[in-house]
Amino acid sequence: MKIILTITLSILISNLSIGQEIPELKLTQNGVEPIVVQVDSLTASETYKNALNWVQETYKNPNKVLKANITDKKIRIDGFATDAWWYKSLGIRNSYNMEYTIEISFKDGRYRFEYIIGQFYIDGGQKVLYDYRTFFKKNGDVRKSYKDAVPSLELTMNSLSKSFYNYVTGKTTEKDSDW
Fold this sequence. Notes:
five-stranded antiparallel sheet; two-stranded antiparallel sheet; 31% helix
């Protein structure tokens, strides 16, 4: 039993020390602060090329979502997330869809990931008449009714950021490797 526990702890500790954690995107009443992610072994050109491949694999219509493409410098993507955030009202979970823009700038050994929240929609495509600033009081605290909205929206943003990081750095596993 001690051997199994020792092996398990060794694996967990080694995975924690090897894996690099990337900064998380945080939502505030002023929007989302961009993050800078270190990718020490990659040049700006390599990161840019990997980013274009990620767009091709991640989006259903990659040519429509790619709005800016400056070779080895920057890309801009306009996307749409279903069930992007939710909140509970009277015990019922209400989910919302969202438009967003991400701008990714490249330099040797790092990239800057900027997430810009766009229009909210309910299912059926109807626009919502408010934006993320409604989640916050004037002092910056999250309103009680939106206590689930902020973390759920951050989860959506950070899932996309993590997907990008894993793809660009080669940490994703090939799905088609055993065909």
